[in-house]
Specification:
alpha/beta, DNA replication, 3'-5' exonuclease DinG, hydrolase activity, acting on acid anhydrides, in phosphorus-containing anhydrides, RNaseH-like_sf, seven-stranded parallel beta sheet, 5 domains, exonuclease
């Protein structure tokens, strides 16, 4: 091995007959780097003397005919060995490439013992904010040249570029930061730490202008904003300054927002998705009411992050306005907790790697929001231990730089404050001044009802609590406490067992009284959340279960029969807006009425159809109630087989987990590659795999109906297996039905049916998020055609979408033509 100054790196990529250790090499690409420059390249095909699978041919573009003309590995082994024997072996997933090549070389008499460096793990550590670390994804993020992915020399050249970017980034880190990383660097794969050792020699000293060192941590300093620029009073001018061109509907919506400022009543504004509503309300409100803080609340943290990273960032960069995004404390890292974890050496290599990742992230983050780190699913429990609890010790050395405290303070002085419905409700409950006399916008306001319901409920994870109670009962030294804990453990275990046997989650008064009796005599602080739930003002209790981190968890839920009056909950405001694509529920039931408002300004833009999306109704799908669960699964599976022949990504939405799993089993029997929510990972994880091209078929439920946008594919098929009616046994549904009956309204026609249509429209919109996309939606629930309420659904869809009502075979042919 040469010395550090003349060290050479061989960046290697192999294409092989499979991903297994026994695979045969079919292509080799090598790039030699010296003195941070590419000095030589090598490529060759290799004849494996076996036929390639269809998958490998499709993935690499390599054919059997091409390889038939190629040399055997024995003919090129010496050249490969002599080229790389005195180099550091670098690869993207070095374990596979290095082991496979070393095995092939060994069989030809060459013993490869070079050090190894893995670019996958190094990229995960030094680019902690990326969502994916495949070479294709990194090429897009870091502008690597990867014009022919999955050919060995193209992948090797892209990996070489990645390696040089990594080297440059590591060498540019402060020397003090590298010194904090090096004690953990032995946890990196193979000899990857050598890049940090080399970088330490070249690294600059800490810049006091860019960073601040506090205790064990080095943090990025926030730079002050340049002088604020005044927005124009003209919406189109402001949009032009952002480098954007106004659309006619967007201008019309902006005018509705501006007109609403002169009306003291709350403004409910409705317009279809896709017209650029966010800019259409942000720019007029920031320019016309600059004397008051503008608070924008959205339904989810995911949407909050999206708006902050896109529209708000652009406004901030151009106009230099103080803009801030705030969430609950648990979203932020607690620096004391992380510093403490650094003091405790872990035997887990991956946790130590996460510590390195966080140390690098702290050099870059301005928010301390842990959602910026995307790859934390495997050790979520470690990240949970670092989440902020909202408590601060002024004596802590990290108090002045605490991210949650800074976020709380920045929220007071920002002209634009972005938050989410859940945090807004929690905050305003305790602090009316947070929103008082300000301009407040609720985006996607139709979701407020459910947020309000969740806010007025309590939920407790019994799967976590029960083992703790059992442990306390064994360890307790006080006989009375021991017996009370044993009794509590018995009753909790009993109600969970009953739920598993009967699937009836409702807790009767006897079960609640038994829990109350046990808890009234127990004074453990850890039981306080359960005690407050059981002995509080809640009137209904029920059990539910869900799969969380691929484990089934049981929850105890508590709710109230009465609804929160949202109007009276809010403080006095300068102006209030509710904005959505769907604010009307039905002629008799409106969102303003359900929220407690009577005197409102209601305006909407006319709806138009989008030619990039069409809906097909499968008239030959059998009536669901006339089929067994197994026959229904087979009917769905048969249609999916035929849709797969169109070779387009397919999203299949289910309302039942059982149906989804049964269809998945049928697909497995047929050997069809597919992804299934929870079975193959969480919703976000399987969505990532689907959009990365791991499979062309994704089965999903739950959050896929309204919380996941599909933007990657230019052409896509969405299959809706059943109309998304609410479960009539759901606590909220029963509560709403009771209220509507009291008011003389029809729960089904005035609420459940219209709400189902709104949910259906939201689901349809998930697969058309760009102007260049085309989306074909196939609805396979015959209730849309053969029920007394069918015309209501048909008319509602026909207002906004092009519909086709056909036999399945004709649907298939029309979809194929549409997606060309």
């Amino acid at each position: 091995m040469t010395d550090k100054n003349s060290r050479k790196y061989a960046v290697v990529d192999l294409e092989a007959t499979s991903g297994s250790a026994s695979a045969m090499i079919i292509q080799v690409g090598i790039v030699i780097i010296k003195n941070d420059r590419i000095v030589e390249t090598y490529q060759t095909d290799v004849n494996p003397h076996e036929a390639l699978t269809e998958h490998i041919v499709a993935l690499t573009g390599i054919t059997d005919e091409q390889l038939a003309q190629a040399p055997d590995f024995s003919q090129v082994a010496a050249a490969i060995y002599n080229l790389i024997k005195d180099c550091v072996f670098v690869a993207h997933n070095v374990k596979f490439d290095a082991n496979l090549l070393a095995e092939h070389l060994f069989l030809e008499g060459f013993d490869l013992r070079t050090p190894r460096v893995d670019t996958v793990e190094l990229t995960q550590v030094f680019y902690p904010h990326f969502e994916k670390y495949s070479l294709v994804s990194l090429a897009a993020e870091l502008q690597l040249d990867l014009s022919e992915a999955h050919t060995a020399i193209a992948d090797a050249l892209a990996t070489a570029q990645l390696f040089l970017k990594l080297k440059k980034k590591i060498e540019g880190l402060p020397k003090e930061a590298l010194e904090k990383l090096l004690p953990l660097a032995d946890n990196l794969l193979f000899e990857s730490r050598m890049l940090l050792d080399e970088a330490l020699i070249k690294a600059p000293l800490l810049s006091q202008k860019e960073y601040t060192e506090v205790g064990q941590l080095i943090l990025k300093k926030s730079l002050p904003l340049p002088k604020k620029r005044k927005l124009s009073q003209d919406f189109t001018v402001n949009l032009a300054l952002l480098g954007l061109e106004a659309r006619e509907k967007q201008k019309a919506f902006a005018q509705l927002v501006e007109t609403g400022l002169s009306d003291q009543s709350p403004s409910f504004l409705e317009a279809q998705a896709g017209l650029g509503k966010t800019y259409a309300y942000l720019l007029p409100l920031l320019s016309k009411s600059s004397d008051r803080q503008l608070i924008v609340s959205v339904p989810t943290k995911v949407l909050q992050d999206q708006i902050m990273a896109n529209e708000v960032k652009k406004i901030k960069d151009v106009f230099h306005l103080p803009c801030h995004s705030i969430k609950g404390p648990r979203n932020y890292i607690k620096l004391d907790a992380f510093a403490e974890s650094l003091n405790h050496e872990s035997s887990n290599r991956l946790i130590n790697r996460y510590k390195m990742q966080i140390l690098v992230w702290l050099l870059e983050t301005e928010t301390g929001d842990l959602d910026e780190i995307k790859q934390k699913q495997r050790f979520e429990s470690y990240f949970d231990s670092l989440r902020h609890d909202g408590k601060l010790r002024k004596q802590s050395q990290y108090f002045p730089v605490d991210f949650w405290r800074q976020s709380y303070e920045n929220a007071k002085s920002s002209q634009l404050l972005l938050t989410n419905h859940a945090y807004f409700l929690e905050r305003v409950q305790d602090d009316k001044a947070f929103a008082e006399k300000k301009v407040l916008v609720f985006d996607e306001a139709q979701k407020l009802l459910l947020n309000l319901e969740q806010f007025s409920r309590r939920s407790l994870n019994l799967s976590q609590l029960l083992p703790l109670v059992q442990h306390w009962s064994k360890d307790s030294q006080q006989l009375i406490e021991k017996r009370l804990l044993e009794s509590l453990s018995f009753h909790l275990d009993y109600i969970m067992e009953q739920f598993h046997q009967t699937k009836d989650g409702h807790l009767d008064l006897t079960a609640v009284n038994q829990l109350q009796q046990n808890l009234s005599e127990l004074n453990r602080a850890e039981l306080q959340p359960l005690k407050e739930m059981i002995t509080g003002s809640f009137t209904e209790f029920w059990l539910s279960s869900e799969i969380n981190q691929e484990k089934r968890q049981m929850y105890l839920n508590a709710g109230r029969e009465d609804f929160l009056n949202f109007k009276s909950f809010l403080p006095e405001l300068k102006k209030l807006y509710f904005i959505s694509a769907t604010l009307d529920i039905s002629p008799k039931v409106s969102l303003p009425g359900l929220l407690g408002f009577t005197d409102v300004d209601f305006a909407r833009l006319p709806k138009t159809k989008n030619s990039s999306q069409r809906i097909w109704l499968d008239r030959t799908m059998p009536i669901i109630t006339q089929l067994s669960a197994a026959d229904y699964a087979q009917e769905l599976t048969g249609r999916l087989f035929q849709l797969l022949t169109l070779k387009k990504p397919i999203l299949v939405l289910f309302t039942s987990i059982q149906s989804m799993l049964m269809v998945s089993e049928e697909l497995e029997k047929a050997g069809i590659l597919h992804l299934t929510q929870e079975k193959n990972g969480t919703a976000s994880k399987v969505k990532q795999k689907f959009e990365a091209g791991d499979s062309q078929l994704l089965l999903g439920t739950g959050s896929f109906w309204e919380g996941a946008d599909f933007v990657a594919a230019d052409r896509m098929i969405e299959v809706i297996t059943r109309l998304p009616f609410d479960n009539p046994e759901d606590f909220f549904v029963k509560k709403m039905n009771k209220r509507l009956k009291k008011e003389g309204k029809h729960p089904f026609y005035d609420y459940s049916l219209p709400l189902m249509i709104l949910r259906l429209k939201q689901a349809i919109g998930r697969t058309l998020r760009r102007s260049s996309q085309r989306s074909a939606v196939l609805i396979m629930d015959s209730r849309i055609l053969n029920k007394t309420y069918s015309p209501v659904i048909y008319h509602a869809l026909d207002e906004e979408f092009y519909l086709s009502n056909q036999k399945f075979a004709d649907c298939l042919a029309e979809i194929e033509d549409f997606l060309i």
